[in-house]
């Protein structure tokens, strides 16, 4: 699947996947100091790539018509992946307490929000609200 999925992708999807690879490198550099962090980059890249390829028609149309950039598509996928891994309960030791994997995913989630803020997509207030919302979810899940 990997070979053929890359062979038959649109220019827009290739652009998105290139942006994902660039983010993957940044994630590896930023979070690679721990065992979990060292594995995070590849795991998140693979999960997001699957998600992006499953939605390739929608993404191609959105990037092609200019309503969203490849970078933003990647940030959205990274945010969704990190948030899902934090609030699902799968990465908790027990209710309200994240495992080491959960903490790495939560740090990734906050890092993605900073990227959104740097790109002017969200404000500091929205970023803090998003973090507080996820912290609330962490307390209630696990």
How would you describe this structure to a colleague?
The chain has 142 residues and is mainly alpha-helical. It has helices at 2-7, 11-31, 35-54, 56-64, 70-87, 100-118, 124-140, and strands at residues 92-94, 97-98. It has one domain. The chain is built from 7 helices and 2 strands; from the N terminus they run αααααββαα. Keywords: Plasmid.
List keywords for this structure.
7 helices; single chain; globular; two-stranded antiparallel sheet; 142 residues; mainly alpha
Helical percent range? Answer: over 70%
* Principal-axes shape call: globular
Are there runs of 5+ residues with pLDDT below 50, and where? none
What composes the largest sheet? 2 strands, antiparallel
- Can you tell me the number of structural domains? 1
User: Approximately how much beta-strand content do the residues carry?
Assistant: under 5%
Keywords: Plasmid
